[in-house]
UniProtKB/TrEMBL annotation:
Record organism: Muriicola jejuensis
GO function terms (MF aspect): methyltransferase activity
GO biological process: methylation
Domain of life: Bacteria
Keywords, comma-separated and alphabetical: Methyltransferase, Transferase
Positions of the PG-1098 ferredoxin-like domain: 280-322
InterPro entries, A to Z: PG_1098_Fer, SAM-dependent_MTases_sf, Thump-like
Domain THUMP-like: 323-388
Name of the molecule in the record: Class I SAM-dependent methyltransferase
């Protein structure tokens, strides 16, 4: 950590130039004699990335940004806030503290928090930024989080881990056994030291596989931002069983929070009704799809599903639904003659449980991207390929 970066003149330069072309900075002569082009580029790039991902950090003068790989791996501000909402208690240990975003938000929910980070520079950066952000109740520990847990005689209300998902060659991984630290290997220690353990994993991890490997899963939170699943949160407890696992599928957007809670076992045993397209069409948000709440959606919202594998739903009356809602204008049997009129027209195309991809559909029928028309190429309840022409319905804001 080069503290010369914190000088007033350098900070003013970063504030005025964070949107500049980074390559030009790297190829230019040093702007400041005691700061390399690489170090300056790191700060400019970090500031630029923080503008949307971490607005609290972006708006605060004097923040020191880590290398891009660390900033990419850290939670966004919106997901950090969500995680903190799940935590209650007096003590917590963040064993993989990193840049400190999650730690910052956890500190607002827990009076005593310990931040562990093995990388010395990242440890210093997190400690510096905590002071800048006015965080005082966090204890910073430089070292391996698991080693710290083995050595301390303390126990915690909560333990949090965000295992590293990159190999030594910087390749991304998502299997639990490939992440560092290996939570499965240290599960007994974690549950001995923490009343509740929260583990953040890749959104690529299969829920069923995670449940089997983790064991002792009490809750799973599938967290999407702007309809893109960003992370899975696993809450472990000693006495948790599969029969009691609670799943929350949540989609976080600006001004909205769409969520659905259900039990893992209830989804397995729920029934779903099937039917033809009616007056309204619904597409669940990505967190619901990842959570596999296909039957729960039918039961909760009293909608029919078009087909077992289409994951599209329909109703006669318009409903407030966690996802995108559409008014069905017409249902078109899928054949070349019926779709000839769409050639050269603009439309938003989706393909669900359909033999052609979106790209294949656009190429075959000459449909341009965009416009106000939404076309769903799918399969109906009796196995026929159809096209549902629809208009999108804007959803009212739901406070987050």
């Amino acid at each position: 950590m080069n503290k010369n970066i914190l000088k007033t003149g350098v900070q003013e330069f970063i504030e005025n130039n964070y949107g500049t072309d980074i390559m030009s900075v790297l190829l230019s002569k040093p702007v400041f004699p005691d700061i390399s082009p690489q170090e300056l580029a790191q700060q400019l790039s970090g500031k630029n990335k923080a503008k949307n991902k971490l607005p609290t950090w972006f708006q605060k003068p004097g923040i020191y940004y880590p290398p891009n790989v660390n900033l990419e791996q850290t939670s966004s501000e919106i997901t950090g806030r969500y995680k903190a909402e799940l935590v209650r208690g007096e003590t917590m240990a963040d064993l993989t503290g990193g840049f400190g975003v999650d730690t910052y938000f956890f500190s607002k929910a827990v009076p005593l928090l310990i931040h562990c980070e093995l990388d010395e520079e990242l440890h210093e950066i997190a400690q510096h930024n905590a002071k800048v952000l006015g965080v005082s109740q966090v204890q910073f520990h430089h070292g391996d989080g698991i080693a710290f847990l083995k050595q301390t005689d303390k126990t915690f209300d909560w333990i949090f881990l965000d295992p590293g998902r990159r190999t030594s060659s910087n390749k991304k991984v998502f299997l639990l056994s490939d992440c560092e630290p290996d939570v499965i290997l240290h599960r007994d220690l974690l549950l001995h030291k923490g009343a509740q353990v929260m583990v953040k994993t890749s959104p690529m991890l299969d829920l069923k596989a995670g449940i089997e490997q983790f064991g002792s899963v009490a809750e799973i939170h599938v967290v999407a931002v702007e309809n893109e699943v960003k992370e899975l949160l696993w809450i472990l407890q000693k006495d948790a069983t599969q029969e009691k696992i609670e799943i929350t599928a949540v989609n976080l957007t600006k001004g909205r929070k769409e969520s659905l809670e259900f039990r893992w076992i209830d989804e397995r045993s729920a029934a779903c009704s099937f039917g033809p397209p009616l007056d309204y069409l619904y597409e669940p948000h990505s967190a619901l799809l990842k959570a596999g709440a296909f039957k729960t959606v039918c039961k909760t919202y009293a909608v029919d599903k078009l087909h077992e594998h289409s994951h599209l739903y329909t109703s006669r009356e318009h409903l407030s639904f966690p996802g995108r809602s559409f008014r069905i204008d017409q249902v078109i049997p899928f054949n070349k003659k019926n779709l000839r009129r769409l050639k050269g027209e603009k439309a938003n195309v989706s393909a669900r449980n359909f033999p052609l991809s979106v790209a294949g559909i656009r190429k075959k029928f000459g449909i341009k991207d965009g416009g106000e028309v939404y076309l769903f190429f799918t399969t109906n309840n009796i196995g026929e390929n159809i096209v549902i022409q629809s208009s999108k319905i804007s959803s009212p804001d739901i406070p987050t």
